[in-house]
Design a protein that fits this description.
Length: 570
């Protein structure tokens, strides 16, 4: 468990399975993976198999196999780990004090000595056999008891193929440290072979530079991870804010429905009250009529039962008059009516379904298509002493985020200065960096770094911001480059002003890796890399706009129908 932790702490883990390397294999791009993981991944990449190559799961670079006619299973088995990985695995792995020969037979005999040439541990019995062998009798062995039972590191740099031969040469063509036997057999056709003593300082210097590059990459990735974590946190906060807004919109829509509901309920109460008042008034009149008819009934009944003829005729005459009045009176009964609530539930559902509470969209970057540009601040990047029309010319502008501070970088003003402006504690701070010649186009190359073209001296300068600008380095180029863009963390795209109708893909040392045709754009002054790694080109006159892939295939060409203005379209 302690050994596994040491290996994990030193990043000796496979990026595919996220475990400590098991039988590691290193590709040409210097990325290392477990052979079993690499084989499983290769089998899922039919294009790579068709190209007889092993794809890197990390950077997608292809590694040509030594024997393409062999099965895919044997492609990965032919790969070996790098010297660095193997050395770290040996140094940090469990120390073996068991006899190597006995271990092959399944025995665990304690080791007594270690052979510096064979790099194996032997017990006393196996050591006698080792000394009897003609090829190993002169090998230097070290007593493990004297060295506290710990196997010391090898003191000599021995050939992996010819274990009895010391490495004395370095083949520059194959980039391999070799022995004299390897040189005479496998490298006799190579043109550039140096002694190992001559190459060691150069290799060490190269590794130191590579270490610094890796440190910068680690810093960039650390900053990117920190920035990503911040974006994740902001995304979560933004999601909660949008949910609250959706709820507010829903409450507004529900409020409209509640107001309509209240209006209908009040209408029902109003109409019901009017109708009930009419019916109550009618009931009161009916009660009065009922009382009158009851009294008349008593009078008539009394006249009939009294046998008085005069009283009978008096009642009869009264009834005759009452009958005529009844015939001439109007019927005051209330008009029959009822209150009905009519509705169309299906129509209501359709109407509600049409109602939109809002719309949720994803926009790339910080671009908001629904917003309008608003002027937040004007920065005057001119300095004292900048005079003439050229002092007002701005060639390029970029914004970098350094320690949560937005730094605005401007090139131009007809001088060899690069201007950087940022706000600290509500105070605008302006800094300038003196460069060898006038800087032109800017390209952010990751983290707090930017690259800028210096065409007058055929250079590209790399600048770090903290947030003050400082010159890291400059690289020489073969062409006068004006346009510049960052393709990835290790490659730039640059365009010149020599009517070649092409841009060059450069490494960070200014070396041309390949050229890409820009079609009708003769002087690609403006270059932009899209999210899908396509390239956009235009010239200073903006006569056309061309899009191409990184392989040089033209995606589209756009030429305005109206006369172009002297302005940038990127």
């Amino acid at each position: 468990m302690a050994t596994a932790k040491k290996l994990t702490d030193n990043h000796l883990t496979c990026l595919i399975c996220a475990k400590v390397f098991t039988d590691p294999a290193t590709l040409q791009c210097s990325h290392t993976f477990c052979k079993s993981c690499l084989l499983k991944y290769t089998k899922t990449q039919p294009k790579a198999i068709q190209a007889k190559s092993i794809p890197c799961p990390s950077c997608r670079q292809l590694t040509k196999v030594a024997n393409p006619e062999s099965p895919v299973e044997k492609w990965v088995s032919q790969l070996k780990p790098s010297h660095v990985i193997q050395g770290l695995m040996d140094d940090l792995g469990e120390s073996s004090d068991t006899c190597s020969v006995c271990k092959e037979d399944g025995e665990t005999t304690p080791g007594a000595v270690w052979c510096t040439i064979c790099d194996d541990v032997f017990c006393d019995g196996c050591l006698k056999l080792h000394k009897k062998m003609p090829l190993s009798r002169d090998h230097e062995v070290i007593d493990l008891c004297i060295h506290s039972n710990e196997k010391p590191k090898a003191q000599r740099f021995m050939c992996r193929i010819h274990k009895d031969e010391k490495i004395k040469l370095f083949c520059k063509d194959c980039r391999m440290a070799i022995c004299t036997v390897c040189c005479s057999i496998k490298h006799k056709k190579c043109d550039d072979v140096e002694t190992i003593d001559t190459m060691t300082p150069l290799v060490k210097e190269s590794l130191i530079i590579e270490t610094r590059n890796e440190e910068r990459k680690i810093e960039n990735y650390t900053e990117n991870i920190s920035s990503t974590n911040s974006k994740i946190e902001k995304l979560s906060t933004n999601a909660q804010e949008m949910k609250d807004q959706v709820r507010k919109v829903r409450m507004a829509a529900v409020d409209v429905l509640l107001r309509k509901e209240k209006k209908l309920l009040d209408r029902i109460d109003q109409l019901t009250k009017i109708r009930m008042d009419e019916l109550k008034a009618h009931r009161k009149s009916q009660e009065i009529e009922l009382q009158m008819h009851q009294q008349r009934h008593e009078f008539i009944d009394k006249a009939v039962t009294s046998h008085c003829v005069a009283e009978m005729y008096d009642i009869y005459e009264t009834l005759s008059v009452a009958s005529r009045d009844k015939m001439t009176s109007k019927d005051k009964r209330p008009i029959p009516s009822t209150i009905v609530f009519t509705h169309d539930t299906d129509k209501l559902r359709r109407s509600v379904a049409v109602v939109q509470l809002g719309e949720v969209k994803v926009y790339g970057g910080l671009y908001d298509r629904t917003s309008s540009p608003v002027l937040l601040q004007t920065i005057d990047c001119s300095r004292q002493g900048d005079i003439g029309p050229s002092a007002r010319v701005c060639f390029d502008v970029a914004v970098l985020v350094v320690h949560d501070i937005k730094v605005t970088v401007v090139t131009g003003n007809g001088s060899s200065r690069l201007n950087a402006c940022y706000t600290s504690n509500t105070t605008l701070i302006q800094n300038c960096l003196q460069l060898p010649t006038c800087p032109r186009r800017l390209a952010k190359v990751g983290g707090a770094r930017a690259a800028v073209t210096l065409p007058d001296t055929k250079q590209i300068a790399f600048i770090n911001f903290d947030p003050e600008p400082s010159l890291l380095s400059t690289v020489k180029t073969k062409r006068e480059y004006y346009g510049l863009a960052c393709l990835n963390y290790s490659q730039l795209v640059a365009g010149g002003d020599d009517s070649r109708a092409s841009v060059d893909v450069l490494d960070m040392k200014g070396n041309v890796l390949k050229s890409i045709n820009t079609g009708v754009i003769k002087n690609p002054f403006y270059i932009h890399v899209t999210r899908n790694n396509n390239l956009l080109f235009s010239d200073a006159a903006v006569k056309s706009l061309v899009s191409a892939t990184c392989d040089g295939e033209v995606v589209f060409t756009y030429t305005p129908t109206q006369p172009a203005q002297e302005t940038s379209c990127l």
